[in-house]
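Many introductory courses stop at the sequence. We go one step further.
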Amino acid sequence: MSEDVILPKWGLTMEEGTLKTWRKREGEAVAEGEVLADVETDKVSTELPAPVAGILARILVQEEETVPVGTVLAVIAATAEEAAALRQ
């Protein structure tokens, strides 16, 4: 089963964030807690950890794109087969 990677709200006043750099690419395996990307807000620059282990199946937000809190940034699949299906 796949899991969405969502831009969390890291502060009371945070409304959006800019995805600066993806540290993983589509198709790569990720461990739970491993850093997927760097995100910049109006107050901080921080690392976005993977919520679960699996395969980074799909990146939905590109580098330098600014999106609101709660936006789905990427999808992590449980298996390689599921990841392949999600990329289609």
